[in-house]
């Protein structure tokens, strides 16, 4: 399904400075980046190709179409992009059928956001079939909405997923805190105008203006997220 991005509401901001928290999934809330790489390595081995470890930093956090396209080009594998994408998603879905491990601090953070009725969205480059499986572990009740990578024409690193989530929640992107684990996701959130907390998983993420880099979700709680968006900017 393809979604368009409505214009962001430009009315004067009122109410709490922090309006919503938007969370990435793979590598941020659930420890699945290694699973994706394991599946990619196995599939390409069956195709007669060995993936170099250096490819991992290129494909991490990206949309399936971009990652699969890169791996086809890098290896010269004789497989169509659509076929490879479907194969990788199927294998990954099978691998996580029994559940996925949560990242340290993820369960506590989700519970805290829910307890304080903070609007929360799951914003992932993964496809809908993958998100729906992972939600069994995360708990769908923790999210007001979810955005999947195959539901937009452009996904991360473009800002569209975060703009769409903010629009559907009825909030200002500038008053949203985003938690991401890859530079691809951070780039998308910052382009949307959100304040970003980076929790690097596979590859390091350099510090930058307006960006907060931490070592683990265990360092992130609601007061921490609220401090990212000073109340004085919004007349509260």
From TrEMBL:
Against InterPro entries, the record matches this protein to: HAD-like_sf, HAD-SF_hydro_IA, HAD_sf, PGP-like_dom2
Q: Which domain of life is it from?
A: Bacteria
- Any idea what this protein is called? HAD family phosphatase
Q: Which organism encodes this protein?
A: Streptomyces morookaense
Identify the NCBIfam families for this entry.
HAD-SF-IA-v3
């Amino acid at each position: 399904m393809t979604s368009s991005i409505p214009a962001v509401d430009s009315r004067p901001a009122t109410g709490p400075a922090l309006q919503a928290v938007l969370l990435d999934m793979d590598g941020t809330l659930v420890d699945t980046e290694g699973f994706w790489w394991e599946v990619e390595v196995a599939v390409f081995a069956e195709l007669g190709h060995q993936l170099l470890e250096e490819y991992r930093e290129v494909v991490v956090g990206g949309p399936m179409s971009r990652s699969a396209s890169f791996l086809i080009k890098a290896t010269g594998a004789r497989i169509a992009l659509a076929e490879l994408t479907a194969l990788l998603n199927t294998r990954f879905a099978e691998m996580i059928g029994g559940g996925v491990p949560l990242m340290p601090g993820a369960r506590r953070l989700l519970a805290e956001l829910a307890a304080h009725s903070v609007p929360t969205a799951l914003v992932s480059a993964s496809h809908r079939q993958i998100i729906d499986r992972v939600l069994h572990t995360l708990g769908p009740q923790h999210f007001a909405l979810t955005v999947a990578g195959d539901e937009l024409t452009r996904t991360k690193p473009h800002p569209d997923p975060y703009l769409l989530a903010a629009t559907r929640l009825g909030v200002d992107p500038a008053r949203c805190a985003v938690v991401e684990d890859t530079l691809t996701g951070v780039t998308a959130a910052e382009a949307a105008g959100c304040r970003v907390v980076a929790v690097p998983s596979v590859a390091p993420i350099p510090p930058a203006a307006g960006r907060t880099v931490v070592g683990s979700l265990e360092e992130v709680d609601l007061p921490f997220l609220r401090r990212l968006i000073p109340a004085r900017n919004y007349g509260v």
